[in-house]
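stuck on whats below:

***
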Amino acid sequence: MNTNLHWQSFGQGPDLVLLHGWGMNGAVWQQTVESLQPYFRLHVVDLPGYGHSAEHHAQDLAQIAEMVLQGAPSKAVWLGWSLGGLVATHIALNTPERVSKLITVASSPKFAAERPWRGIQPNVLSAFTEQLMEDFSLTVERFMALQSMGSPSARQDVKQLKQAVLSRPQPNPDSLLVGLNILADVDLRDALTALTMPMLRLYGRLDGLVPIKVATDLNEQLPNTQQFVFNQSSHAPFMTEHDAFCSQVRDFAHG
């Protein structure tokens, strides 16, 4: 199995790994890379099945993490957006010696709702799974629209996400399916208390996929972590409130 995923590195400074979300690829970080490269050595990967890593496939979260670790710096600050947040968290829990600090963006230890836990309704996830079989480009597009709903710059955000995604090869449908299964099934809530490194959790107040209640619930469970809520953002705060996002990352990762 050739596991060489597509990596790009930019800038100088402490190592910072950026992991994208479901249906996306590393191109979504273009703007973030431009703003942060004077401060960090940034490492951007296309996760297995996405973008320039489309011909690679991982069966589950553990395998995704394993493939990503093979090309990652020996120790870094890890930042994961959405599904990428689950990957980064899994890596922090299972190979803590590789992670100096952990940042999750619009992410949740358990994406699927299960009362009283807030999240994506299981029927929404299964509808996406069904649609995926019929037309995966359309499904990814619908997901993008869902990610920016509510943000004042929704139109611009979707356009940016779309441009980024379309600039690289289409994702592999099998990997998209694995990703949806991870969002539906994975639950890292109890495991999180074992995290030893500093953690920053970033949220969008208007996020329909990771409801803001998740932030409050985790505040109680993880009193030693930091969190910040972007008031104008839904699921993509690094686009909607770009400058504020970069300064949060800079302050925490350098601090």
